[in-house]
Amino acid sequence: MEVFFGAAVLVLCYVFLRLLNLSNGPAPPTLYYRPSDLNEFLLQTVPLLTLRYTPPVLWGRNGHLQSIIHSLFGPSRSKESRTGECFSVQLEDGSTLTYTLYDTSKPHPAGDITIVVCPGFGSSNRSKYIQAFVSLVSDHGYKVAVLDHLGTTDNPLTARRIFTYGETGEFGAMVDDVMRENTTTRLIVVGFSMGANIVCKYMAEGRPHNRRVICCVSAGQGYDAVRGSNVLMEWTGFRRAYNFAMAQGLKTILQRHSYVLFRGNSDFNLSAIQSATSLQEIDLAYTLQAGGYSSLHSYYRHCSCKFTMHKITVPTLLVNALDDPLIPEDMLDVPYNYAMSRDNAMFVLTRHGGHLGFYSGGLIIPDSETWLHRLLLQYLDAMSTLALDQSKVKASTDSLLSSSSAFENLSLCASSSVGTPVD
Known about the structure:
By secondary structure, this protein is α/β, with parallel strands linked by helices. It is built from 14 helices and nine strands.
């Protein structure tokens, strides 16, 4: 009996260790980049790039727990919710997008900078992780504009469509409106999960405002919806269960706005939408018809930043976790290849963090700020400082060139007056 009891205890300890991944200790993130002056500058000014990331001891090394806790509760700093000013913009197709602009109580040392944020799947400005990020960066002098994906709020739809995985029109319209309100502000582009895919696509389009963008940040995205749609149908890593949960969330959004989306419209198979257990089934029954796509493959390819992100020209930071249950390791060749092909990009891969979790510190209760949010703040501060220094150099150079030009003109005038015949 004692032997049996001892064996049972050992088995339970083994299962406990395996489940919580306690044998897999904390480590610094793995960095992929090409040697360049910019990346050397970042290594010197962004400490979290080289320091060990330590998740909560008892549960933080399990990517599923990180992801689920993030989804249900968000960072504790999210309790410090901020109140911003809501704006609405009418789009050409009749849709009305909304976004919230959060001001800051103190100016940033590098000047007027607005972070434009694209949240993840089904998220809006009220999502807990967005509120936590807004709270942190606002305290450090940044203005923040956060997009509400179409259909994710209680605001009624004014056209028969909701957000899609890769549509950049709404985000672009928000950026345009922010720039109309403040023509001198500099921009920092930040996206989380699905929103990171959208901002990378947006930056690859070469919009006019790109020249005012200091840098672009992508956190926790999958890059390739074609491959992603396949892996989300697998039970490996319980990805099929996550797919089911996201499908239920999407069905809730469709149901909330069903009066606008489906009233008097027989093009959609409502029973197929209601019985769907995956995002792919909803896309077959709704998204393809709504967007006029011929197949799931063409739709997912259109949505993926993988095929256009090589056109991004601004400094870019890409962040993923190796234990993200939604994004298997073999899909991370995209950020790796991108970072290794240019001098102004860096791919940061952590051992732990799950899907947008990145909780850190503590035995059970983590720090109020996630490792990801603190990393982004350090990176944004470094890039803002660099942009300020570059603008000062440019201003000095322009002033010097202007003075030189004036001196040359003065000299030319003086030399032309010498020897001038006098009547």
